[in-house]
Amino acid sequence: MVTLVVTMGHGSMDLYSQKLAEHLNVPKVYTNIYQESAELFNISWFSQQAIKSIKMDTEFVRELSRVGDVIHLPNHHMGRYGVFLKTPYVITVHDLIRYFDMIDSGAFIHRPNARDRLYLSLDYKGVAKAHRIIATSRYAKKSLVKYLGIPGSRIDVVYEGVDHSVFKPSRRSRPIDEPYILYVGSEHPRKNLRTLFEAFKKVKESSCFSDLKLVKVGKAGGCEADFRKPTLELVHRLGIEDYVVFVDYVPTDELPAYYSHAECFVLPSICEGFGLTALEAMACGCPVIASNKSALPEVVGDVGILIDPWNVNGFAEAVRRILTDEGLREELSRRGVERAKQFSWQRAAEETLRVYRKVEQELAEGCW
Hints:
Layout: E1 2-7, H1 12-23, E2 28-31, H2 33-38, H3 48-67, E3 70-73, H4 79-82, E4 89-93, H5 97-102, H6 114-129, E5 132-135, H7 138-148, E6 155-157, E7 180-184, H8 193-204, E8 213-217, H9 228-238, E9 244-247, H10 255-261, E10 264-267, H11 276-283, E11 288-291, H12 296-300, E12 305-307, H13 312-324, H14 326-340, H15 345-364
Parallel strand pairs: 1-2, 1-3, 3-4, 4-5, 5-6, 7-8, 7-10, 8-9, 10-11, 11-12
């Protein structure tokens, strides 16, 4: 029997575990450990938070050890707990973004301090130790093989889903009066907002789009850095501050209205382990323009416009096409809704359950 760990936070990786829990009839352990401990970055070893975190981590390992069953850790930052388990476990890897920051391959989010490096190294040791790994995309699986040297035979790809009862074309009133293009997400460096803002400026240079706004939904990022400051500096430097609307938090049930009324959704990320916001946009009938890197082509497929993330002119031209070609806009909207139906949490749960059964069979045959 496999016991699923469910993290009770509000992030996308918490959502993943919570949605699986709704659709899986397996034992579960509910915890706040990810939000309270594993999600702490850039704090000092000697801070009260760090000391409290060590105590919480120790107790959580004890709690998991008492379960006795195979454990499913729902995200890679819980690998630090798997390192200390004596029983086999499954772990889900959403991406290797923090790993790339750790090996200095570029600040995708934030360069880790000494404490973060230790904890991140434990995370990825825990990933490597897992009996079986669930990757949320083929891109994530390839990254695990390439960078961590994990055999592909130990990795199963199970895509995330979208809640179609929530994310669908909305009849709610417009959240913004003017026509707008939409971005939903953080302001981490990996999100490549520079390309989005520069492309938006190019579009605005045409008098045809004088009323057009750019709506940015979501918090700037975690507490490890002031991600909003460089964003505002860039907006000011480009002279588009009067046309960019920042909406820090939108309740989940109100978010479909933002997607549904947008002219298009733009996601120029350099690195995404899946790309949930692009899927949400598609489910709401919002045309998608996205980067052609990492996992985004797997999610968007051929129902959106995919462009090199550094091609500012390409993004600007794609936005112009959608704004001026009603037929294209309607086609992308219709095809996006159809494609999004392929991704559901019910399907993700069924495929996850097949991984559980595979693990149980392997352990029964002594493959441990």
